[in-house]
Amino acid sequence: MAELKITRRSEEEKVLRAPLLLRLGGTIYEVPVLPCGKSRAWRKQLVEAFSGLELAGLQVNGVSEFLAALPRLVQQVMMGLPEAVGDLVFAYCPALPREEIEAEATDEEMAQAFLDILGAALPFGRVLRALKDLAAALPKAPEEQGEEASAA
Question: Nearest CA to 115 among 21, 37, 10?
Fold first, then answer.
């Protein structure tokens, strides 16, 4: 299986609420990004689908490690529970022609579509960047300033 990764959407695409472009069965589908309430309900389905799933060698401590581990997580899930990934793709966009897509799409296309949906439904990257910027702008504690002075 080729390397899977979350497709990065530009800030303009996010602001303009541009649809996700999912390639399934060789066809590109435009899928609208869900509003908060529907996205929250979809994330609950995500948690339910993967709860209790033991993934070999996957240890995640924090959101950034979770996001970094997502491609590997999806690959492992696709090997063990490929139906769950497909079900979640179709749950995010019930208007997709499921029978047609399941007849034509590859598991790799389904996994990539799932990752692209995750990128929209779990926008943690933007939150992490904002937190890092905020932390950099905050005044340092006196003990941290002392460490920097002694290191110089």
Answer: 21
Q: What is the model's pTM? A: 0.68
Task: Match 């769950």 to its residue by tokens.
Answer: 84
Q: DSSP letter at 126?
A: H
Question: Which amino acid would we find at residue 74?
Answer: V
Three-class SS state of 50? helix
Burial of 132 (0-12, 13-18, 19+ CB in 10 A): exposed
Q: What is the pLDDT of residues 66-98, one digit of tens each?
A: 666 666 666 666 676 778 889 999 999 999 999
The set of residues, in sequence order, having a beta carbon less than 8 Å from that of 54 and lying 6+ positions away, is none
Say if residue 1's pLDDT is above 50.
no
